[in-house]
Design a protein that fits this description.
heterodimer; A: mainly beta; six-stranded mixed sheet; five-stranded antiparallel sheet; 55% strand; globular; B: mainly beta; four-stranded antiparallel sheet; 0% helix
Chain lengths: 116, 113
Amino acid sequence: AQSVTQLGSHVSVSEGALVLLRCNYSSSVPPYLFWYVQYPNQGLQLLLKYTTGATLVKGINGFEAEFKKSETSFHLTKPSAHMSDAAEYFCAVSGYSGGGADGLTFGKGTHLIIQP
Amino acid sequence: GAGVSQSPSNKVTEKGKDVELRCDPISGHTALYWYRQSLGQGLEFLIYFQGNSAPDKSGLPSDRFSAERTGGSVSTLTIQRTQQEDSAVYLCASSLNPQETQYFGPGTRLLVL
């Protein structure tokens, strides 16, 4: 069984400030971890994913995330927020590198608000 | 290239009616997924197809829901006798195979009155 907890349904940061979105997971098998972004009235777009190897993963739009097995965490960060980063962010876990037959298990999402 | 497309983009129906939601995956993608996104439940995985086969249908919310895929391409999610709790955004995703990244369509927003 797998689950994802995203702390904070809404996070507000000032433009230019650090973005930190928290994700903790539970998995009975070695996890594959994903961050997706959803803009209004659009589907989900993959930001980055952890499969194996390097625990610091770099993604698109300047985002990165670090897999910490001891903390069962996969927090998403970006050094400097931009207005265009305002969106809904979802963390997901799977026992397979692409989701596999069980699909992806998503967290509830975090709405990122960027203050000018 | 073309991404995953879904139709209709919006659907309003009356309680008790049947609806069909369509997904056109990226060409060549063998794996196809359906998810439901609702305010109360968040994003839920519904069903997975490898080719035309769905090995496990237990994720479908009730026996009013069914899905099929033909020709290893287009998939249809059918909801019979719709209920108000079926109101949600239904998302489709496809991937080259189950080990590869899923690419999502824009979704079908279903409203049951």
